[in-house]
Design brief:
Layout lengths: L1 H8 L5 E3 L15 E3 L8 E2 H14 L3 E3 L2 E8 L5 E7 L2 E7 L2 E3 L3 E3 L8 E2 L5 E3 H9 L8 E5 L3 H12 L3 E6 L9 H8 L6 E2 L2 E7 L6 E6 L12 E4 L2 E4 L3 E3 L2 H5 L24 E3 L10 H20 L4 E6 L4 E5 L2 E3 L6 E7 L3 E10 L2 E11 L5 E5 L9 E7 L2
Parallel strand pairs: 1-4, 8-20, 10-15, 11-18, 12-13, 12-18, 13-14, 21-28
Antiparallel strand pairs: 2-3, 5-6, 6-7, 9-19, 15-16, 16-17, 21-23, 22-24, 24-27, 25-26, 25-28
Helix pairs in contact: 1-7, 3-4, 4-5
The protein binds flavin-adenine dinucleotide.
């Protein structure tokens, strides 16, 4: 929404696509407070924070689809992108000059942390548990163990306790907590929930439903210390073991992904290596605070609007493939104007040839070559001048 609002403010025509039935993203389920201290200088809950943006969004005439899942994006043959959406109204095709990827992140699962055992009911990511409790009004646990000290796990430890469940403890493999200090204090210390550092869960017991988990201390290389293993009876294991940027669309567009952030590689405008594709929020890298997510959305929106609104009038640069291996660039942008530096290679080793460049039949540049060989790239520089022409043609012919 931050990106949509800022792009709209810059004069771009914007379409926001959301797969859920309401706007607001993950904030809808984050009913605790502490959001917005930087952006609004206030302590807000997640829904309140999202509500501010929703209000701002609906003050503007911005198009949006909810219940619409972006399943594919590809480069269009002309310029820009073709998007394929699966929606309540059927399949929808959208053409866009730019895309801002703001798909958020996803949670790591038990498979990604290699916990052995059956796959009984009762293993939830913290976000799923948060959704069940805060949105669906269901209590999925009576006595649980939390693996990982990420913020969502800490917040859910407090939430479960307030709802009458027992949280046996939070187990963190590292020797320091992953979540914010304020969440350790307000969610664990205030409720006497033990935090076990340098500890992990190695096994899950139960076939239909979780009955217990095996926990133990780890050494400095994160190897379980056998002698410390113990079994904790519980009906649920809650995983708070990290978030990963949601990048299926970026990957399908073959956008470069940084192995460190797991999100796209971007420049200072938050544009990826694919021209016109921008990325912000948790899809770019996992943020601690939503305030930074909104800031990056605003920046990406401004930059994407600038990109989309910069007029381009491309005319093709064509050549005879029998004479040339290639000529580059393939297009000239008339709105930018300026010199055209043409790079080309001949297809064969030829002698006494002239190469001429025409704009709709008018000669712009010509040069005679006593010999042209494919192995040597040739360069011609000239100014096409801002005249009304629809195409540039490069021609090779014999002389003398
Ligand atoms: C479970 C969970 C709990 C969190 N709790 C907190 C917290 O308490 N405090 C805090 O500061 N931060 C929290 N965060 C971090 C939080 O995600 C960010 O602070 C921020 O809200 C992320 O904003 P976003 O717009 O990048 O992503 P999201 O809010 O995740 O929004 C992404 C949106 O994109 C939509 N989407 C994704 N893919 C597609 C597609 N292909 N087609 C259509 N729509 C799509 C999703 O439905 C979603 O609405 C939490 C994150 C998670 C995962």
């Amino acid at each position: 929404m931050a990106a949509a609002i800022s792009a709209h403010n810059e004069g771009a025509r914007v379409l926001l696509i959301e797969r859920e039935n309401r706007l607001g993203g993950i904030l809808k389920q984050c009913i605790h407070d502490g959001f917005g201290l930087i952006y609004f200088k206030e302590r807000l809950t997640g829904p309140e924070y999202a509500g501010r943006f929703i209000e701002d969004f609906f003050k503007r005439d911005i198009e949006y689809y909810t219940n619409a899942f972006l399943i594919e994006a590809r480069r269009s043959a002309q310029s820009g992108y073709e998007l394929l959406l699966q929606s309540a109204r059927g399949m929808i095709f959208v053409n866009a000059k730019t895309i801002i990827l703001a798909c958020g992140c996803r949670e790591r699962t038990s498979r990604q942390v290699f916990i052995h055992g059956e796959r009984p009911a009762g293993i939830f990511t913290a976000g799923t548990a948060q959704y069940l409790v805060n949105i669906m009004g269901k209590m999925p646990v009576k006595r649980c163990v939390i693996l990982g000290s990420g913020d969502i796990g800490l917040i859910m430890a407090r939430r479960f306790t307030l709802e009458g469940a027992e949280v046996e403890g939070v187990y963190e493999i590292k020797d320091s907590p992953a979540g914010l200090a304020r969440n350790i204090s307000q969610c664990l210390d205030d409720f006497d929930i033990p935090l076990h550092l340098s500890s992990t869960v190695t096994r899950v017991f139960g076939s239909k439903r979780v009955e217990a988990v095996e926990v133990c201390k780890v050494d400095k290389n994160f190897n379980p210390i056998e002698s410390t293993k113990r079994t904790v009876p519980c009906d649920a294991l809650i995983l708070s073991v990290g978030l990963l940027p949601e990048n299926e669309i970026a990957e399908s567009l073959s956008i470069d992904i940084d192995p460190a952030t797991k999100g796209p590689v971007v420049d200072q405008t938050l544009m990826t290596n694919l021209p016109g594709v921008f990325c912000c929020g948790n899809a770019l890298h996992v943020n601690d605070l939503v305030d930074y997510v909104s800031q990056s959305g605003t920046s990406a929106g401004i930059a994407a609007a600038g990109f989309a609104l910069s007029e381009r009038e491309l005319v093709p640069v064509t050549y005879d493939k029998n004479d040339f291996l290639y000529a580059l660039p393939q297009y000239y942008d008339k709105t930018k104007g300026g010199d055209l530096t043409l790079y080309f290679r001949s297809r064969d080793d030829v002698k006494k040839r002239k190469v001429e460049v025409f704009a709709d039949g008018k000669l712009l540049k010509g040069k005679k070559y006593s010999r042209i060989v494919p192995g040597e790239m040739e360069v011609l520089n000239f100014d096409p001048e801002k005249e009304d022409f629809t195409g540039i043609t490069v021609v090779m012919s014999p002389y003398g």
